[in-house]
Structures are given as structure tokens and as C-alpha cells.
Amino acid sequence: MDEQHIYKQAKKRVEKKKGFYKHLSVFIAVGFFFLAMNVVTFFNGDADAPILWFFYPMLPWSIGLLIHYFSIFGLPGSNALSEKWEEEELAKELARLRRNRQGRLEAPVEPEEGLDLKELEKEKEARPNWEDKDLV
């Protein structure tokens, strides 16, 4: 991996974390707002049957927040859905596809028209003991 690719991956990951923390901040702010509204209506409402309702809208939102957390940080205590797990699964899948590909005969890919290989030709001329298969 080159540095540019690593930087882009890191930046993307930081942006995802930043999005989660914004989501968490809004969740907390709205939760306190609903709690304040509930406290005001709790004491000024019907004295016979006061009810705490603020957690009803917060419950589904908290489930969504948990899903957002797991998608960014993975499941705590396990490597499922983590970046390391994803890399391991990608390596397994690539190995499986390569094994499947080796058992199959494939037609060689024809080079595109106008493909310029002057640098490789110069390298081949500089080292005459090379064969074409060594330049791939």
C-alpha cells in the first residue's frame, strides 16, 4: 500500500468516527431536552397519573446509536466487524478466489492498442538474458 492510499483510508475512518461522535452529541442533547420537557409536564400535568415518557422516543434512537457504534468500532470484546476482522476476511476471500482461478484455464488478455512499453523494451535490451515472462 502506498502512503496516499493509507492516508485516504485513515481520513475516511476518522470521518466515520467524527460522524459517530456528532450523532452521540445530538442524542445526548435531545435526550436532556426531552427529559426537561418531561419534568415540566410531570409536575404541571395531571396529578393523578404522572408519567415518564421521555425514554419512549429515546429507546429506538439508542438502538440506532448502538448499531452506528458497532459499525464504526466493532463489537466490544470480539474482533467481529472490526477493521482487523475485515482485513482477515478479505485475505481469506482473496486466497479462495486465487485457488479457484488456478484450477481454470483462462484466455490471455490481449494488450490494448496504443499501449506503449518503451521502458520495458529498454530494460529488456539492457539485460539480454531476461525472457518475456520475467517482465510480467
Secondary structure layout plus pairing:
Elements: H1 3-44, H2 55-73, H3 83-102, H4 118-126
Structural summary, described in words:
This protein has 136 residues and is mainly α. It is built from four helices and no strands. The chain has one domain (3-101). Helix 1 runs antiparallel to helix 2. The protein starts with a helix and ends in a 10-residue tail after the last helix. The relative contact order is 0.05.
Using DSSP, what is the number of strands? 0
Multimeric status of the protein? single chain
Query: In angstroms, what separates the terminal alpha carbons?
Result: 20 Å
Low-confidence stretches: none
Structural class: mainly alpha
How can the largest sheet be summarized? none
- Sheet-strand content, in percent, reads under 5%
Helical proportion, percent range = 55-70%
Mean pLDDT: 78
Helix-strand sequence: HHHH
Individual helix count: 4
Roughly how many Å is the radius of gyration? 29 Å
The total domain count is: 1
Overall shape: it is elongated
Summarize this entry quickly:
The protein has 136 residues and is mainly alpha-helical.
Q: What labels describe this entry?
A:
single chain; 136 residues; mainly alpha; 0% strand
